[in-house]
Design brief:
The protein is α/β, with parallel strands linked by helices. Helices cover 26% and strands 22% of the residues. It starts with a strand and ends with a strand.
Length: 219
């Protein structure tokens, strides 16, 4: 995730979704090149012209050198199935698109989603059961390393359920402010400090005006 110096990942109206440098974008593609699958929430996919793919030839070649498929699997998360069928991601069919959702999706909408995605997996009644969903991705699609690119609500659930092993954060020299501007992890969040997901700093480097930090889980 890229965030401002005050911890925001978008402006209050969520109009800004990309503000990192070219170096940050290259870092993102380098991370995708290590993953079997890339995952994002429906709002993230709707808000920006993203395809969650591996990028150019350089990164696809890097994947092949690591023994991975040339193109990563792409996973979209939407508990209510409210995703724009005209989103950019559906215009690119270079690799399978998987949609994780719940029983809350009406039958008619579920049918439309099955026409958009290569597979729609219902992973819970009211909320997505992420431990079960990730087990299914491993068993059904052989996903061993999954890169998640937000948004804030999806991140928070993964932190809360202790499913994040490593966190890559680019800190950009900007201040957005705004009490309604989303942070790296949204949702309900931890109430007592004891519930906070614990990480330790693994590495930190400066490149241009940005800081690239890597954290690994401790609990």
């Amino acid at each position: 995730m890229a965030m401002t110096a005050d911890g925001k990942i978008a402006t209050a109206n969520r109009a800004v979704s990309t503000f990192g440098s070219r170096r940050d974008h290259e870092h993102l593609l380098a991370l995708r090149a290590t993953a079997d699958a890339v995952m994002a929430g429906a709002r993230t996919v709707d808000a920006a012209p993203v395809n969650l793919g591996p990028g150019g030839v350089k990164y696809r070649r890097r994947r092949l050198q690591q023994g991975l498929a040339e193109y990563n699997l792409r996973v979209i998360v939407s508990g209510r199935g409210t995703i724009n069928p005209r989103a950019e991601i559906f215009r690119h069919r270079f690799s399978p698109l998987i949609l994780l959702t719940t029983d809350r999706v009406p039958a008619a909408r579920l049918q439309r989603l099955r026409g958009l995605a290569d597979e729609v997996k219902i992973c819970g009644a009211a909320e997505i059961d992420f431990p079960a969903a990730l087990r299914w991705l491993r068993e059904r699609w052989q996903v061993r390393r999954l890169a998640c690119e937000g948004g804030a609500e999806l991140n928070e659930v993964l932190f809360r359920t202790r499913l994040v092993d490593e966190l890559h954060v680019t800190i950009c020299p900007l201040i957005f402010g705004g009490r309604d501007a989303p942070t790296l992890a949204g949702g309900a969040g931890a109430a007592p400090l004891a519930d906070a997901a614990g990480f330790r700093l693994k590495s930190l480097r400066r490149a241009g005006g940005e800081l690239f930090a890597v954290f690994e889980r401790t609990q």
